[in-house]
Design brief:
Blueprint lengths: L2 H5 L11 H13 L3 H6 L7 H15 L4 H5 L1 E4 L2 E4 L12 H11 L6 E5 L5 H9 L4 E6 L2 H13 L6 E4 L10 E6 L32 H9 L4 E10 L5 H10 L2 E8 L5 E8 L2
Helix pairs in contact: 2-4, 6-7
Length: about 280
Amino acid sequence: MTISQLRSRRVELPDPDTAALDIDLLLVHVLQKPRYFLHAYPEFELSAEQATVMEQLLARRIAGEPVAYLTGEAEFWSLTLATDPSTLVPRPDTELLVEWLLEEYGDTAEKRVLDLGTGTGAIALALASECPRWQVSAVDQSAQAVALARRNATALGLERVCVSRSDWFDQVVGEFDIVVSNPPYIEADDAHLQRPGVCFEPASALVSGADGLDAIRQITRRAPDFLAPGGVLLFEHGYRQAESVAAILRAAGFSRIETRSDLGGNPRATMGVNSH
């Protein structure tokens, strides 16, 4: 079986928008070759063992399993992160949070940052990689996620990022200039939960009550106790939740509330300033 023949199998995959990339990522993983190799040598023949592994991975992808779980890694910002089913797959839209904070504070010598619900460590590690003098901490309630984020920190030479286990703020000590979070924000009955890929991810990292806002309410209520005066709280949220998140922040005494849109033009992240 050749690379060209396998790349033609994209029509079988569940997401037409990413099918070609999905096939390429699986081939890169199986062949342990750079992606340009696939384009340069389309008639390269896989060994029998490689072809068997590729067929197994394709079957799992056709069933909807995320490519990042099949290959064990995902790209986020400029980083390659190890992934596993204990955490969400890092998504490009979440890079908006990193971009926004770097735009606002990237030239600042020192900032104390807390990433709540860190998962793979994506946000914390991206910020630490760009701002060496920032003091970055990250927490997650899942012991598996904590272990994964620590493994990513070590692999990237970012052991200075402090990763620990905590259910939101429960085990957190200290004061921060920035609290950032990509919390669960999907409604419990949202049909998107049954989409290919999503149904393989941990529900605890996706679902947050009837309206999807329980975690955001809980974090916002406690955040002023951990934020320095003038510190900021930044959330990723659903594209229909911007007004509700802004209202939650406003009711908790946050000011200068602003929302920004993701790569698709959907309102995706909202920031507020601690005025306490």
